[in-house]
Fold this sequence. Notes:
This protein is mainly alpha-helical. Among the domains are: 36-228, no CATH class; 240-316, Alpha-Beta Plaits (2-Layer Sandwich), CATH 3.30.70; 327-417, no CATH class. The strands form six sheets. A three-stranded antiparallel sheet has the order 11-12-13. Strands 1-4 form a two-stranded antiparallel ribbon. Helix 13 (327-344) packs across helix 14 and helix 20 packs antiparallel against helix 21 (527-540). The longest helix has 35 residues, at 394-428.
Amino acid sequence: MPTPAPPSTTCGHTIPLPVLSGTPPHAAAPIKKSRNAPRRALVLILIYILMTIHLIQWLVVGMTISPIEPSESMYTLELGAINAGFIFFSLALLSTFIFGRFVCGWGCHIVALQDLCSHWMSRLGIRPRPWRTRLLLWCPLLLALYMFVYPTFERLALIPLLNYFAVPRTDWPFFITGAGRPPHFHNALLTENFWATFAAWYIAIPFLAVCGFATVYFLGSKAFCSFGCPYGGFFGVIDRFSVGRIVVSDACHQCGHCTAACTSNVRVHQEVHEYGMVVDPGCMKCLDCVSVCPNDALSFSFAKPAALTRAKSNTPRAPRPAMDLSWPEEIIIFALTIALFMSFRGMFNQVPMLMAAGLAMIGGFGAWKLWRLTRDPNVRAQNLQLKLKGRLTRAGYVVAALFLLLLASGAWSGWVRLTRLRADLADAKVLTPDSRVMAPGYTPTPADKALAQRAIDLYLSTAPLSQGGFGWSFSPDQLARLAWLSAVAGDLPSAEGYLNQSIAIARPSNDVVFGLARFMTNRGATAHDVELALSSILARYPEHATARLTLARVLAAEGLLPEAACEALNVAASPRAGAGDIVGASEILVGVGRADEAVRLLVDAAHDHPADPLIEASLGRALYFCGFKDAAIAHMQRAAALAPDNQAYWGALSELLDDAGQHEAAANARKWIDTVTAAQSPPPAPPKGR
């Protein structure tokens, strides 16, 4: 007879429970530990070791293989930079057709963090419960299409369509950011700036904490793979057509050990019973299910793709777990999650896309839990009881406060981002030509000033609190836009101040350096003041060729010709000097009366860049100043032949030919200019319909 156990108290009632002795013969065997789990852990640890070696090698040598990161493929598709990330991602996608999603399970550093979090939670007695939704499972594919497909679609379809209907660039939709130019494919396998496309360390650590740990705790094991990974969006689709599958033999007894061991939330025992294989695209081929099967009924094999597999007609479909959200909740939470993603992305000018996806998923989950807290008497989040018998628990107050804080920060970030988008749109309406704004004595028209001031006011409303706004600091590019708008509005001191702020944050672009020098000159600064400003930039960025060339021009204007020539020669001697830098240096040398040195520089540059029209044209000008008119004409003709649509080269050629007495050839060059001008003129607008 069973021995009574000590009384158990439940809801205020004491119930004596019997204690059964012995083990019944039909008791289920304990689930074995997966033999593949430690093997996979070692592989993932090795991934981190190799990543560390890669980073150290770059720090020591200064050059290394470009990041082996799938997101680098964006630069291949948009800019033509063929890098290691593109090659890796391409091979991973192709291999998925054969082996399934094994790259996710055995080669992803984010999966390693998620598995580590799941392991720690299991050691604490917490098994991450998956958040069962329908619409949010489409987010990875939507992200993948946005990252890798939309830019090409925009370039090949949207922009040509807008150009076909002669829509002015200023009237294009705000989400079109490309120029419609095809990528120029080039080798980018090696890089000197390995970390350029990665977030700073103070963002990378929170990113790993959010995507590798927080998503697992709130949303379930491998939740980031299910809801936020764009690469998984492609892998999941391809897996449906993969021949590599987890298959079952007749030895299966439907014990469910496989499902219990799966960390990808796949209902393994049900799928193999109904289909004879695992068909869920979430399966990452970790092989834990194969390892723990007590009858060795599961194995990895090549079989018919899941997309072509139908359930067995004689096998009843087992009921699946119920979804956590009703359809109205699904739609609302899906829309809210998309809005949160757009809000968090770029927050503080720092939050990257994948971190924004993780924050958005947690925010959507938090909004749903807050909603359930207002309706249900009992609410849990993993091991935390948030509400019991209609009353919030202490944990409930803390978790609710954290979720409210996350949603409030998303709303604030969304307002800042939306306001800056409005500022960008207002900025796009400012069409004052550069030549007017940069000209000495420029005075804005009332209309130009009003348009520029409108954009400035919108930008400044999102400045930090310390500067009278309600947002965060501006990026260098935004500061440059503020400088330009201030110049359009006629406020040169403010324009100069914004450019100096931009320079203090990051290496300035060529336009920023040129703009600073021009704005200072136009507001009446002395040449010495401009010289000091440029020298300050060079003190921080000594390899900045444009700053050094601009300084050389200022020195030449002051009459300091030897100093100007010295700066120009320093630019040309730099191992980083490009063709444009050498051309700029040669122009300065010609201007200070040292055309012979300019010719030597350009001859060497023409040898290194044998088909560069800019170098050929500059060499022609330098030879002309040295008195070699025939050679000058020959090089200018070569430049015009290399760039037949460049009117400046044909104009310079006609002047050289006239000076040499070849008037008929000069007239032919001018006729070609007229032909090019006619070809480049926009077609007449199509007639409007009635």
